[in-house]
């Protein structure tokens, strides 16, 4: 038979009492659930919403306080429970996928109510039965005992035998273990410890028939996250309940209904207590004065409402995967757990609870967690985890991982499972995972502090910083995966080969930068360049026979599969072949690339790409005295600008149009006959950003003078050029001469433009395009291991 929806999940609305007080029920928090973290505001809102609902019960017996959806799985086979004494687990275990913060807070509320009611009950009755002729006090005594039993059942259950028969309703994986005997009964987590400590106190004091003590838990030393917040929230609840019992005004929450409402409103009585009060009780309430009895009545009202009128919808999923899918679809309150948070306990279970603490696996997982901890819970953390896993999946198996949480969880689960039985392969998987996180955290970081964790500082060369900064600005994250592969090889290299492998990492980055620039600049779109990188990661459609660059193949045993290849010469050859192939890049040498790229409106295609092309063209060039307005290759180090400093100095080298984007006079109308002409590389130049206001829409005759000054060989030359323009031609600029002089820096590409005295027209711009692109190609092709004329 086909699977029906009811076989996958069921949803039922339940009161708090119905949910928590079921015989044999245990609620279980899986290890990936975050520590308790509710704020004071959330606790106050919970109580305020409850009080609001209680007040409205006087006008409508349909008043409930609905607190959303709790998503669980009914773990009939106990597959989620670690550790456990198998034959002592509660009869029905619900593993909580979503809603643990609310459930923990509601249990804190029922514990706090139980404690305050117990104190006032003793204060009023001193552990003795009231006179049976006193109907009102007898009612209050019996109703209180009934409510304390009901409240107690929401947070613990007593087993029929054993020297540790108290079972907290809610415990956490790894930290806690249900058991009837000491020392197997372990309740170390913040919530389980609080429940167990209080429950045992209740039982012990009841057995000794002594005055109950006020329960004020304190955070234990060395417990870790969650307990300080849990203890603070409990203390805040206690304070609020004490004030409510005394009918003391609190601005942040509504007050309780007056006891006269309970006395006179029969509808309220029936809705709250399921019966009407006797005349004697009503009369007692009419004349009641402040004191233990009035305080107890008020807390009885509140506890009755909490137990029976706070409602949640409980969704039970077939298994974890279905439960998470339901959670994401419902988009309930709370923040979805990331795929890393749900993956981490699988590593713990694979290592073993006892062994994990000191394992290498923990070191790797802590490394990933340290990176992700820098992001705020919410969209920021989800996006960071998503991006990390997408890059890792590509580096690990060449897989194109989707952005869906369900797919990310499934990938990490499935891939780890095929490694989980063998410690060595498990360690290699996790090592590659943390390498990816470290690379993204430090090398891909958007600042000047880029470095390769675990490698010498000199591994982060100027070329490396340039390439990564370019990729980052281009948002070209597809290259993270192949870079991680070379980075991982460098980390694993022996001392004898370390420097050689580090050099290969730099060479691989330069090869990918060159490939990306030459590919992207020769077309108007990305040309599906990401597919080229993905194919290389998987080894599919190789044009040179290069094996997969990814570490392993997805869900395979490896038998008959090509071994991974992390070889820079093989990578260069494959990149060149893809660039030149008619089915891929279709770039058949220098002339062909120049022809294609010269027609591309590079400025509108990509600003980062435009800057890189121009920097590559300008690098180590001098003015071409035979061709005014153009440049030519110079000696090595004659004018380095394809450097990290050249790239980072956007304030001094920003893209500007020679002929402006719209004609304001003084320019050939032919530039504007075709809208793309002004955006081609021959009409683009890098200038100091601060000079833009002076350049603006000036005609060519004035603009070339400013270019000559900005690119002059010396400050004196720059000043002389500007002063001559002002004296002989009356040309002045928006900025002062001195301001412009101090912007000047010897830049042959600008100085050469200043030597062109003829008009600036599309024909010359086309010649300049060809010349700049040829210089760029000859600069970058050697990075791919290719030759140039």
Automatic annotation (TrEMBL):
Xref: InterPro entries: GmrSD_C, GmrSD_N
GmrSD restriction endonucleases C-terminal domain boundaries: 644-774
Pfam family for this entry, one: GmrSD_C
Signal peptide coordinates: none
Highest rank taxon of the organism: Bacteria
Domain GmrSD restriction endonucleases N-terminal, chain residue ranges per copy: 17-345
UniProt xrefs under PANTHER family: DUF5655 DOMAIN-CONTAINING PROTEIN, SLL5132 PROTEIN
Protein name: DUF262 domain-containing protein
Native source organism of the sequence: Kribbella antibiotica
């Amino acid at each position: 038979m086909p699977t029906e929806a009811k076989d996958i999940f069921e949803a039922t609305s339940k009161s708090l009492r119905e949910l928590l007080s079921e015989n044999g029920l245990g609620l279980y928090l899986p290890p990936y659930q975050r520590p308790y973290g509710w704020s004071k505001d959330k606790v106050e809102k919970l109580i305020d919403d409850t009080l609001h609902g209680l007040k409205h019960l006087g006008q409508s017996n349909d008043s409930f306080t609905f607190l959303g959806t709790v998503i669980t799985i009914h773990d009939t086979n106990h597959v989620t429970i670690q550790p456990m004494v198998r034959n002592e687990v509660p009869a029905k275990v619900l593993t909580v996928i979503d809603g643990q913060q609310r459930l923990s807070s509601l249990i804190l509320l029922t514990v706090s109510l139980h404690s305050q009611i117990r104190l006032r009950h003793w204060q009023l009755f001193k552990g003795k039965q009231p006179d049976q002729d006193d109907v009102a006090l007898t009612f209050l005594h019996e109703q209180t005992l009934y409510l304390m039993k009901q409240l107690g059942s929401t947070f613990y259950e007593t087993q029929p035998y054993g020297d540790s028969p108290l079972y907290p309703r809610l415990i956490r994986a790894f930290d806690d273990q249900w058991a009837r005997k000491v020392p197997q009964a372990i309740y170390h987590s913040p919530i389980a410890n609080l429940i167990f400590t209080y429950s045992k106190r209740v039982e012990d004091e009841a057995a000794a028939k002594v005055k109950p003590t006020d329960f004020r838990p304190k955070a234990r030393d060395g417990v870790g996250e969650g307990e300080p917040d849990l203890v603070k929230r409990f203390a805040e609840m206690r304070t609020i309940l004490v004030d409510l019992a005394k009918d003391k005004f609190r601005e942040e929450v509504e007050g309780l209904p007056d006891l006269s409402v309970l006395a006179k409103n029969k509808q309220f009585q029936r809705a709250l207590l399921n019966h009407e009060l006797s005349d004697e009780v009503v009369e007692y309430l009419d004349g009641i004065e402040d004191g233990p009895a009035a305080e107890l009545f008020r807390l009885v009202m509140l506890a009755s409402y909490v137990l029976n009128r706070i409602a949640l919808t409980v969704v039970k999923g077939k298994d974890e995967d279905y439960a998470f899918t339901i959670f994401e679809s419902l988009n309930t309150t709370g923040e979805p757990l990331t795929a890393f948070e749900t993956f981490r306990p699988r590593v713990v279970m694979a290592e073993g609870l006892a062994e994990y603490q000191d394992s290498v696996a923990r070191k790797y997982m802590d490394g990933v967690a340290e990176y992700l901890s820098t992001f705020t819970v919410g969209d920021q953390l989800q996006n960071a985890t998503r991006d990390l896993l997408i890059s890792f999946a590509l580096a690990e198996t060449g897989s194109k991982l989707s952005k869906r949480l369900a797919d990310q969880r499934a990938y990490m689960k499935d891939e780890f499972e095929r490694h989980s039985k063998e410690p060595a392969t498990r360690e290699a998987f996790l090592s590659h995972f943390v390498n990816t996180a470290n690379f993204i955290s430090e090398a891909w970081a958007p600042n000047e502090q880029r470095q390769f964790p675990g490698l010498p500082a000199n591994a982060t060369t100027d070329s490396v910083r340039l390439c990564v900064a370019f990729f980052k600005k281009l948002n070209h994250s597809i290259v993270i995966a192949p870079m991680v592969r070379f980075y991982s090889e460098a980390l694993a290299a022996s001392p004898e080969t370390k420097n050689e492998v580090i050099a290969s990492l730099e060479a691989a980055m330069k090869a990918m930068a060159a490939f990306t620039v030459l590919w992207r600049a020769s077309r108007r779109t990305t040309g599906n360049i990401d597919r080229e990188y993905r194919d290389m990661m998987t080894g599919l459609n190789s044009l040179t026979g290069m094996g997969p660059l990814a570490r392993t193949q997805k869900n395979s045993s490896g038998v008959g599969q090509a071994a991974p290849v992390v070889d820079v010469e093989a990578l260069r050859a494959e990149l060149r072949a893809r660039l030149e192939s008619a089915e891929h890049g279709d770039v058949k040498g220098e002339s062909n690339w120049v022809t294609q790229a010269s027609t591309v409106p590079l400025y509108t295609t990509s600003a980062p790409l435009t800057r890189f092309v121009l920097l590559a063209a300008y690098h180590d060039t001098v003015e071409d005295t035979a061709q005014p307005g153009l440049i030519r290759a110079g000696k090595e180090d004659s004018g380095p600008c394809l450097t990290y400093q050249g790239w980072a100095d956007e304030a001094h080298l920003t893209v500007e149009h020679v002929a402006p984007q719209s004609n304001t006079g003084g320019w050939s109308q032919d530039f504007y006959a075709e809208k793309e002409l002004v955006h081609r590389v021959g009409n683009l130049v890098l200038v100091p950003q601060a000079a833009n206001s002076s350049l603006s829409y000036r005609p060519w005759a004035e603009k070339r003078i400013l270019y000559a000054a900005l690119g002059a060989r010396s400050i004196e030359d720059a000043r002389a050029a500007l002063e001559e323009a002002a004296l002989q031609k009356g040309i002045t600029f928006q900025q002062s001469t001195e301001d412009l002089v101090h912007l000047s820096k010897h830049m042959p590409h600008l100085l050469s433009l200043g030597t062109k005295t003829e008009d600036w027209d599309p024909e010359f711009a086309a010649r300049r395009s060809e010349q700049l692109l040829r210089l760029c190609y000859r600069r970058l092709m050697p990075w791919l291991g290719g030759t140039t004329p």
